[in-house]
Q: What sequence folds into this?
């Protein structure tokens, strides 16, 4: 007689994950990998850009300048200081982001942060918050260390002025005798504050644009409306950078000054590309350039910024750029093509049930938010002044560079462009099979 057990075979329990300590260690290691990868990528890009710009010849200050560039790429602020004993003092301010370095660091950090999330269908809110907190703490710790390194003093030689400027030549010789120096320091408070916003923004955008990374259950229902448009916006801003890269390589190959051109590409390519994006849809910037100093920017932009009268700011838009060079009008059709292509990609990646008017709403919101994020990053404020015996500034030795966006004008136009392009992209996508859609004539 054979006995048959009435108990059903049970499923073996899941393998233990090692407990909270092991999970915490794993999260810390993965966060450290994201932070290290991001800073290494930023450091390599900045070093190549500075080398192309000739900064490798600086007397003992290349490492400090490199640290300062990486700090500024992460949102940090740098002040300029100097002195010449009791004869003179120098002061300045530099607020600018080398956006090529910023973009590379954001892409690498975000990609490494998302890697562990691609192996799960759903992410726990607590685990996701722990990962983000670990990356944030380690990022700010590394930024503090770099800020300590980003300081240096250089000795200046101001003698030998131009014959038509005897005053500057005279004071230059006097100051040389006082061993003048000029240096830079990182403002730690603003740097950590902006760095916190920077890393939190990178992690949030990475989660929004990724179409494969796991999300908490509570927000899964929003991903169909957010992720297709968000990923299309990432492709759009990267497309502008790619177009600028091609133009820069052509200029380097045909116009000479290859080293200077590569320095601009490796340090500030998105600064120019995203300005072209905003101007192409009708947006504007305002600013001015005074004194002998400037920024490595296209000649047409420098000419517009130097064209203001007195203390008035110059407006940088399609009309002002076209007044200097008629080819600037090409920014308008380029913007139309790229924005419409982004709208089509977003519509194809969305479920087939989404209507064209919904695509218009999604893309309009996404494009407006994209410009709201991108435009402030292009802000440039650089001032330097030299005070002689406390009686004022030597104009020949001081200067100012200012370039700031007219945010709300450009964001409003982006909203309108997004509505129109989103509706047209939705109409074009109705005849295209959407991602994950099963053809109607499929058998079985």
A:
């Amino acid at each position: 007689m054979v006995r048959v057990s009435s108990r059903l075979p049970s499923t073996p329990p899941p393998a233990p994950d090692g407990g909270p300590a092991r999970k915490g260690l794993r999260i810390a290691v993965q966060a450290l990998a994201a932070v290290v990868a991001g800073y290494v990528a930023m450091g390599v890009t900045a070093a190549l850009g500075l080398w192309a710009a000739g900064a490798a010849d600086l007397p003992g200050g290349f490492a400090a300048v490199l640290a300062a560039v990486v700090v500024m790429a992460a949102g940090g602020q740098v002040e300029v200081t100097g002195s010449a004993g009791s004869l003179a003092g120098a002061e300045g301010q530099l607020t600018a982001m080398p956006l090529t370095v910023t973009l590379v660091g954001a892409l690498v950090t975000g990609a490494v942060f998302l890697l562990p999330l691609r192996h799960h269908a759903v992410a726990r809110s607590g685990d996701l918050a722990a990962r983000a907190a670990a990356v944030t703490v380690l990022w700010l710790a590394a930024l503090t260390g770099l800020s300590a390194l980003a300081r240096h003093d250089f000795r200046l030689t101001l003698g030998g002025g131009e014959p038509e400027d005897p005053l500057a030549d005279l004071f230059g010789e006097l100051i040389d005798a006082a061993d003048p120096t000029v240096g830079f320091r990182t403002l730690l408070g603003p740097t950590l504050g902006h760095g916190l916003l920077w890393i939190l923004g990178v992690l949030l955008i990475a989660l929004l644009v990724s179409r494969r990374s796991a999300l908490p259950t509570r927000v899964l229902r929003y991903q169909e409306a957010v992720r297709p448009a968000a990923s299309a916006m990432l492709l759009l801003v990267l497309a502008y950078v790619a177009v600028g890269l091609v133009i820069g390589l052509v200029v380097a190959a045909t116009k000479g000054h290859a080293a200077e051109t590569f320095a601009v590409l490796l340090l500030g390519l998105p600064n120019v590309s995203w300005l072209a994006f905003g101007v192409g849809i009708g947006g504007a910037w305002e600013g001015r350039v005074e004194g002998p100093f400037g920024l490595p920017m296209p000649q047409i932009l420098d000419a517009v910024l130097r064209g203001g009268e007195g203390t008035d700011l110059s407006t940088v838009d399609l009309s002002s750029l076209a007044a200097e060079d008629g080819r600037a009008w090409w920014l308008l059709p380029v913007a139309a093509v790229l924005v419409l292509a982004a709208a089509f990609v977003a519509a194809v990646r969305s479920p087939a049930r989404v209507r064209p008017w919904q695509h218009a709403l999604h893309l309009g919101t996404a494009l407006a938010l994209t410009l709201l994020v991108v435009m402030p990053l292009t802000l440039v404020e650089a001032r330097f002044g030299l005070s002689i015996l406390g009686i004022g500034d030597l104009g020949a030795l001081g200067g100012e560079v200012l370039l700031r966006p007219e945010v709300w004008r450009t964001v409003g136009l982006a909203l309108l462009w997004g509505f129109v392009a989103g509706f047209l992209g939705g109409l074009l996508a109705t005849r295209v099979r959407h991602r994950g859609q099963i053809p109607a004539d499929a058998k079985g």
